[in-house]
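Supplementary Methods. Inverse-folding protocol.

Structures were first reduced to a discrete structure-token string of length 155. This string, shown here, constituted the complete conditioning input.
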């Protein structure tokens, strides 16, 4: 009964639901100027960091805010899908992930298979980032793991 009611309200444009959250379609989050500064600073930090992002604590701390990825302003970026959790407390900006994927796909088209060392060299990063990025691309069905190497899925 509830599911039918919720579906009808969504169809009518009254509410929007995503996973386990329901809100009025007209609801908009309003941030203070300080909160907006923090959100914009977080997004800029993760975008600029590219393939070697800071931890949520580091990024928040640089903006004068104490907290972790559970911080409500950090969670706004995650909920908005501007930041993506790749592993535990390792987050990347969505545009950075897209750019990384483009580079990896181009390298795979050239070499047919790659390993963590190739990703480290390509992106100038450590294993701390390379392994989670490869696992993320496996999960996104971009690559397939064959032993310690990766190949393009469907190639």
């Amino acid at each position: 009964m509830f599911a039918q009611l919720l579906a009808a309200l969504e169809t009518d444009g009254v509410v929007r639901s995503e996973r386990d959250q329901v809100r009025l379609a007209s609801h908009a989050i309003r941030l203070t100027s300080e909160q907006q500064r923090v959100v914009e600073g977080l997004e800029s930090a993760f975008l600029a960091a590219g393939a070697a992002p800071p931890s949520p604590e580091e990024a928040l701390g640089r903006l004068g805010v104490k907290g972790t990825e559970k911080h409500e302003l950090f969670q706004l970026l995650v909920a908005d899908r501007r930041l993506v959790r790749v592993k535990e407390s390792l987050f990347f900006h969505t545009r950075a992930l897209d750019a990384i994927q483009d580079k990896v796909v181009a390298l795979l088209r050239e070499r047919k298979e790659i390993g963590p060392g190739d990703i480290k060299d390509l992106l100038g990063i450590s294993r701390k980032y390379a392994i989670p990025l490869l696992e993320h691309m496996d999960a996104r069905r971009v690559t397939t793991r064959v032993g310690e190497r990766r190949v393009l899925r469907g190639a």
